[in-house]
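anyone seen this seq b4? input:
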Amino acid sequence: MNAMNYQATKNYQKIQVEAARPERLVLMLFDGAVKKLGLAETAHREDRLEEFHSHVVRVQKIISELLGALDASKGGDLAENLERLYDYMLRQLSLALVRRNLEQVEEVKRLLTELREGWQGVVDQNASEENQSTAEEEESQPSQETRSPLV
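predicted toks r here
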C-alpha cells in the first residue's frame, strides 16, 4: 500500500472511531483483538516470533482498554464477571508469550470471539430499538403536505 492510501485508510479509521457510539467502539476493539490474534497465530506458525510477540502485546493492550472501560456501578455482576474474564485472558496471553505457544492464544481468541458475538447482539438490539423509536416518533407527528409557495 502506498503512503497516500495508507494515510487515507488511517484517516478513515480515525473518523470511524471518533464518530462511533460506545457500544460500537467495544465491537471495534473485539474485532481488532480477534484479528490481531489471527495474525499472531500465523506469525507463530511461520516462526516469526517477534511478530507473534508484537501482535499478542497489542491484544493485551486492547483487553486492558476493555478492562478499563468497565463500570461496576452500572454493570454490576456482569462488569465483575467481565473483569475476571479479562484478567484471565491477560494472564493467558502472558503465558503464551513466556511459553511461545499457541494454546493460550487460541483459547483467548475463542473467548473474545464469543464475547464479540454476544456484543454484536447488543449492538443490533440497540439499533433495532432506535429505529423503532424513530419510526414511532415520525408516525406521531402530523404529516404536512408540501405545497409550492406559488400556489
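Confidence is low (pLDDT under 50) at residues 147-151. The CA atoms of residues 36 and 55 lie 6 Å apart. kinda curious what u guys think
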